[in-house]
Amino acid sequence: MKNDLWVEKYRPATVKEVIGNEEAKTLFIEWLGNKRSTKKAVLLYGPPGVGKTTLVNAAANEYNFKIIEMNASDARSEKAVKRIAAPATSFTGLDKFSSEVKGNMLFLDEVDGIAGNEDRGGVNAIIKIIENTRTPVIMAANDPDLEKLRPLKKICLIIKFQQTRIPLIIMALKKICEQEHIAYEFEALEKIAINSQGDVRSAINDLQGLSEEGKTLTAQDTLALGLRNRSSNMDEALRGYFTAKNAAEAAAALSFLDVDFDDLLMAISDNMPRRYTDIEERARAYDYLSQADVFRGRIGTENWHLTKYFYNNLSQAAAVNSESYKHFEFITAPPIKVHTLFWTKAKRMVLASICAKIGNQCHVSKYEAKMIYVPYLRLLLQQKNKANTTRLIDWLKLTPEEVTTLTGLKMF
Predict the structure, then answer these.
(1) Residues 6+ apart with CB under 8 A from 409
(2) How many of the other CB atoms lie within 10 Å of CB of 190?
(3) 243 Cβ contact list (under 8 Å, min separation 6)
(4) What is the Cα–Cα distance from 336 to 295, expressed in whole angstroms?
(5) In this predicted model, what pLDDT tens digit does every residue of 125-154 receive, in sequence order?
(6) Where are the alpha helices (DSSP H) in 96-135?
(7) DSSP codes, 283-297
(8) pTM of whole model > 0.85?
(9) Quick one: pLDDT at residue 288?
(10) 271 pLDDT above the threshold of 90
């Protein structure tokens, strides 16, 4: 037992032992018992290590199902899917949920992997199997928004899994330490849990790797842990953010994101028109976003106690109407603002030169020249009185390019 992997040794045997995601667990068991949904298949999705596969195995063990497991990312073609999945679902299944009756349960893990270029009808094969199945069909995915999975999602019950809360991971680690007779400092378990970023499997592996027989696990020992940055992916964070059912879920999606505040604001702002097509909902979302921007400015480089207000407003923006979400392709890097600044750089440089010349002649700042003098200068140059415009151009020493920029200026 000494060399056993603890993730296997302490794998939950019942649904109750699976930590976190209580709502997802309830929905899954109700579906399995045919008490809530008439759909023949269910799709569990969420980040790695949050309990999707663990829940399936625990339910199969508790309710006496035999799991026929297939990794869909390895068997992408129609032929491969049928060879494994079809026999598993062709036997007489359960008409009613009963712990006294055994049956098969088909589990397709990493089903999002089936959407590669080499896929030859794999998704269609799964759909046909679901339509004709007599046994429960369960699928798991990290990313359910892939285009090829859309037909599959229409015939499935979709259940979302969140990252497991840090206090729950700490409790699980404490329990393992007690059963393995490991002395520990609470700070050490806390550091392992935080470093896992909601991934229970990673936390248990780290605990086993750091623990030594007869030695107390200290916070100093955890310095060897490398920081996981899996959740710093902007696409993954935006997906969790925009698909959130409420503000709490949106906050959870952003909680492990390691990006610059300004990059996050721009990414959310760029995608907001795609998320909310209703103009009133979009206005409310941008109102929350603008308040978040205000707190971003107040945070600066030292007022970090205001960070919670920044994230609270961002979370509220995602929860304006959770029911209206429809899948869309995210705009990530570079943000629209960066594109705009790039393509307008030449025009802005010309405008800056004009403002400097106005400032020198009129003894005002460049900002005042831009906001007060430029609009009037533009109107004067658009007049047909060539004599007046020529004297003005000569006085300010404007180049032909600067005159063209001013007369064609619409906004700045």
Answers:
(1) 351, 374, 378
(2) 17
(3) 145, 160, 325
(4) 22
(5) 788 888 887 788 898 888 776 677 788 888
(6) 122-132
(7) HHHHHHHHHHHHHHH
(8) no
(9) 92
(10) no
Return d(Cα 402, Cα 374) in angstroms, integer. 12
335: which DSSP letter? P
Distance CA 208, CA 291 (A): 44
Beta-carbon count within 10 A of 396 CB: 18
Q: Residue 47 has which token pair? A: 């980040």
- Contact between residue 51 and residue 18 where contact means Cβ atoms under 8 Å apart: yes
Question: What is the pairing mode between strands 137-141 and 156-160?
Answer: unpaired
Residues 72-94: pLDDT tens digits? Answer: 555 555 555 656 555 555 554 44
d(CA 341, CA 143): 32
User: Got the DSSP string for 126-171?
Assistant: HHHHHHH-SS-EEEEES-TT-GGGHHHHTTEEEEE-PPPPHHHHHH
Read off the amino acid at residue 16: K
Tell me the two tokens of residue 192.
């392992």
Angle of CA points 391, 396, 398, to nearest 5°: 95
> 12 preceded by cis ω (within 30°)?
no
297 Ramachandran zone, left/alpha/beta (phi>0; psi -120 to 50) = alpha
CB burial string 299-337: b at 16+ within 10 A, e below: beeeeeeeeebbbbbbbbbbbbeeeeeeeeebbeeebee
- For the segment 24-42, the average pLDDT, to the nearest whole number, is 81
- Angle, helices 336-343 vs 345-362, to 10°: value is 60
Q: How many CA atoms lie within 13 A of 77 on its CB side?
A: 4
Q: Give me the phi and psi of 235, to 5 degrees please.
A: -60, -45
Q: Using an 8 Å Cβ cutoff, are 19 and 172 in contact?
A: yes
Average pLDDT over residues 41-59: 88
Question: What is the residue type of 57?
Answer: N
Q: Both tokens of residue 227?
A: 């920081």
Distance CA 197, CA 261 (A): 19
Whole-angstrom distance, CA of residue 357 vs CA of residue 362: 9
Which residues, in sequence order, are bridge partners of residue 159?
Answer: 44
Computed from CA positions of residues 234, 236, 241, 242, in that sequence, does the dihedral angle turn out positive or negative?
positive
Tokens (6 digits) for 20: 């976190």
User: How far is Cα 98 from Cα 214, in angstroms, rounded to an integer?
Assistant: 46
Q: Check residue 382 and give its pLDDT.
A: 82
